[in-house]
Amino acid sequence: xxxxxxxxxxxxxxxxxxxxxxxxxxxxxxxxxxxxxxxxxxxxxxxxxxxxxxxxxxxxxxxxxxxxxxxxxxxxxxxxxxxxxxxxxxxxxxxxxxxxxxxxxxxxxxxxxxxxxxxxxxxxxxxxxxxxxxxxxxxxxxxxxxxxxxxxxxxxxxxxxxxxxxxxxxxxxxxxxxxxxxxxxxxxxxxxxxxxxxxxxxxxxxxxxxxxxxxxxxxxxxxxxxxxxxxxxxxxxxxxxxxxxxxxxxxxxxxxxxxxxxxxxxxxxxxxxxxxxxxxxxxxxxxxxxxxxxxxxxxxxxxxxxxxxxxxxxxxxxxxxxxxxxxxxxxxxxxxxxxxxxxxxxxxxx
Length: 350
Fold this sequence. Notes:
CATH architecture of the largest domain: 3-Layer(aba) Sandwich
Radius of gyration: 25 Å
Structural class: alpha+beta
Number of domains: 2
Helix content: 10-25%
Number of strands: 20
CATH superfamily of the largest domain: P-loop containing nucleotide triphosphate hydrolases
Largest sheet: 6 strands, mixed
Oligomer: single chain
Strand order of the largest sheet: 6-7-8-3-9-10
Number of helices: 9
Shape: elongated
CATH class of the largest domain: Alpha Beta
């Protein structure tokens, strides 16, 4: 297990502040955040490339905060691969075994075994200049894995790949993780995080703002930043009151929304997932407590169908399939009804 305990680092014009989280053995842990959040700097601090100012790094019960890079048992794959252009692929991978007390035969067996796992045995005698971006990424992974690291650190490993190659590399990373390899992976890509992570830490401006499983983090964001980062469009600051024991929130004076969440505070935030909103061309009887007539502002393609923007007194966004958009005959300027259950309205203290 790796534990970060109140780790802080200083850089010109930027600080990592009191970072704390733990990564269990065999876990796939994602550091997720926008560019400039400090993700790569934190990864380099774990590797030993950046000096920790305060706090500690504990790996399997041992304090490695000030330990040399070579002694940490940590593998690091950079965003740009950092493959030596003048060396063959075999020599690039073998470079990571320098200083190991292994015979040439043992080194060769490890290289071949790792190359087979990374599906690059046919590339061992080629120069990096002849390889594609995906092949270079596999070489960089192989060079890190031959060291048999306790933890593998990945800095934006899929950022420079097309969608087909990205899918192949995701499958490969999942396979490596299932073989027992602990992985900490830096990315700014929401889909990448959801498809790979056991646990996620969201970073913003040098701090961790939320940690948890993907379901915990994106099902109930801790604050507005996380909600917007997760692509949740229906996020509103609200005032609160109780009516006959039911909690009613007001994002705007003219708009009252029922929620099943109970709170004793008088203000906060609510979020409603796009997928939890039902649309209809006309009003109808339903179990949903929240029913509003609105006007369609716009309709546009999204990664899972169509996103519909409506004006119900506040801007509301719904996610529907392409088939539903056609069936409902929705069009900008037309009226439509918005329905969602009180249980779909999640309250966040603020």
